[in-house]
Design a protein that fits this description.
By secondary structure, the protein is mostly helical. Helix content is about 70%, strand content about 0%. It is rod-shaped.
C-alpha cells in the first residue's frame, strides 16, 4: 500500500469515529442484572443446637435433675405443710 492509501484509510476511520460520536442514535435499554441470593448455612446451626441441648442435659444431670425435680419437691413440701 502506498502512503496515500494509508492516509485515506486513516481519514475515513477518523470520520467514522467523529460521526458515530456526534450523531444521535437510539439508545438500547440495558438489562438489569439480578442479584444472587446468598444461601443460608443451616447445617452448622443444627449442630450448634444439638451441642447446646447436650450441654444443658448434662448440666441438669450433674445437678441432680434440674428444674423438673425441684418443682416436685416444692409440691411435696406444700402438701406436708397443709397436713400439719
Amino acid at each position: 500500500m502506498t502512503i496515500m492509501m494509508l492516509y485515506i484509510r486513516a481519514a475515513a476511520n477518523a470520520a467514522k469515529r467523529y460521526y458515530s460520536n456526534h450523531t444521535e442514535k437510539k439508545k438500547k435499554k440495558k438489562k438489569k442484572k439480578k442479584k444472587k441470593k446468598k444461601k443460608k448455612k443451616k447445617k452448622k446451626k443444627k449442630k450448634k443446637k444439638k451441642k447446646n441441648r447436650k450441654r444443658r442435659s448434662n448440666r441438669r444431670n450433674r445437678r441432680g435433675g434440674g428444674e423438673e425435680e425441684g418443682e416436685e419437691e416444692e409440691k411435696e413440701d406444700k402438701d406436708e405443710e397443709e397436713e400439719e
